[in-house]
Amino acid sequence: EAAYDELKALGVDEVYCLSVNDAFVMRQWFLHQGIEEDTTPGSLGFNKVKPLADGAALFTRGMGMSCTWTSERGFGERSWRYSALVKDMKIEKMFVEQPAIQNSGPDPFECSDAPTMLEYVKSSSA
Fold first, then answer.
1. pLDDT (mean) for 90-106
2. What are φ and ψ of residue 53, in 5° steps?
3. From CA 79, how far away is CA 87, in angstroms rounded?
4. Overall average pLDDT of the 64-88 stretch
5. pTM of the full structure
6. For the stretch 65-77, what's the b/e string if a residue is b when 16 or more beta carbons lie within 10 angstroms of its beta carbon?
7. Which of 7, 21, 81, 113 is the Cys-Cys partner for 12 at CB 3.0 to 4.6 Å?
8. In which band, very low, low, confident or very high, does the pLDDT at 126 lie, cut at 50, 70 and 90?
9. pLDDT given for residue 54 in this prediction
10. 58 pLDDT exceeds 90?
């Protein structure tokens, strides 16, 4: 959310947050994070970053990013952390947290964060 305006100014069309959850959980999580909701009829729901619910993990599996955290966290199937820059329907760059392992104890958040993507977008648009 904090990097949204700068990403948009650099030419990024939109910023989405995808999670293996349903739309209701995603909305509540966004609200709990303090992300401002757009209640205008016909809006996309939030003013800046938009939530994308992948309730059945179909997109996540298609991306090869499905992981299970059954015994470690009791979550079952979820998405491994990553960020992706998509241009003209093609992935230009992905930042995938390492090591990507099933049922991981650690939950790394080192390279899939907004500052890393922002720096990449800045350097690729220079």
1. 90
2. -85, 130
3. 22
4. 89
5. 0.89
6. bbbebeeeeeeee
7. 7
8. low
9. 97
10. yes
Sign of torsion over alpha carbons 58, 52, 5, 2: negative
No. of H helices and E strands in the chain?
5, 6
The pLDDT assigned to 83 comes to 98
* pLDDT score at 116: 98
In 3D space, the residue among 6, 15, 124, 16 whose CA is nearest the CA of residue 79 turns out to be 16
DSSP notation for 34-54: TPPB--STTS-SBSSSEEEE-
Tokens standing for residue 36: 């401002």
CA distances from 70 to 20, 40, 75, 78, 108 (A): 14, 39, 5, 10, 17
Cα atoms found within 13 Å of the Cα of residue 52, Cβ hemisphere only: 12
